[in-house]
Write a structure and sequence with these properties.
This is Serine/threonine protein kinase. It comes from Paenibacillus tianmuensis. This protein folds into 2 domains: 5-100, Phosphorylase Kinase, domain 1; 105-227, Transferase(Phosphotransferase), domain 1. By secondary structure, it is of the alpha+beta class. The strands form 3 sheets. It has a 5-stranded antiparallel sheet. The longest helix is centred in the middle third of the chain and has 16 residues, at 119-134. It has 8 helices and 10 strands.
């Protein structure tokens, strides 16, 4: 790249990112000219800066910093060096990490806009997960919002939970839905309210004592009503 990411440091210092103990999305305030927020999570917000194209800056809330989350994610990126399915890690500032800015549509956007998701993108994420495990890490919390399409290939954006234990099964269930449910809706624009209903139902799956097959039938019924 022709510019160095440290040119953004002064502008980034003006940003305030406030976290919540209730695990709600952070609140961003005190924007500086040239900074654009491209993503908000529960620990941090991600920005680009007009004067440093090609870079993305993940700024953590004070709460997340106190819990060591920036340092943990930094170490994960360092261990993933060279794997092409993730952003490139460049360095860090006092409150932020610096990665390559990856353009593309998320899998969630694909559903909302009716963009077909190729099989290759799913296979790419599967390979990415295998490579993560080969580095002694745990590829979890992979969902529709943090997988993007780039020229028909898949790339994973968020690695913040890879140092944690346990399998949340989110990606495995998405692959299952891709095989079982998606063929019937491929290329169709799905309204946000339909996806929200599925998301809320999925969150209560264990509580409802439903199997994935039972849940699939309910989802199919919902799509049938929508497609009429």
């Amino acid at each position: 790249m022709n510019v160095h990411w440290t040119m953004a440091d002064e502008a980034l210092r003006s940003i305030t990112v406030t976290g919540s103990e209730r695990n709600e999305p952070v609140i961003v305030s005190d924007y500086s000219e040239g900074l654009r927020c491209i993503g908000i999570g529960t620990d941090a917000a991600v920005f680009t800066y007009d004067r440093t194209p090609g870079y993305a800056f993940k700024i953590y809330s004070d709460l997340a910093l106190a819990l060591g989350k920036r340092e943990m994610e930094k170490q994960v990126y360092e261990r993933l060096e060279g794997i092409p399915y993730f952003p490139v890690y460049y360095g860090c500032g006092e409150r932020y990490l610096v990665m390559s800015h990856e353009s593309g549509v998320t899998l969630l956007d694909c559903l909302l806009e009716g963009i077909p998701v190729p099989e290759q993108a799913i296979l790419d994420v599967e390979e990415a997960r295998a490579l993560v495990r080969s580095r002694g890490l745990n590829p979890r919390d992979i969902h529709l919002k943090n997988v993007i399409l780039q020229s028909g290939r898949g790339k994973v954006l968020d690695v913040s939970e890879y140092a944690l234990e346990g399998d949340d099964h989110r990606w495995e269930h998405l692959v299952w839905a891709y095989r079982v449910v998606y063929p019937g809706i491929e290329g169709i624009k799905i309204p946000a309210w339909v996806l929200d209903a599925i998301k809320n139902g999925y969150a209560r799956l264990d509580q409802a004592n439903l199997s994935l097959d039972d849940f699939s039938r309910r989802v199919s019924e919902l799509f049938s009503k929508f497609l009429k």
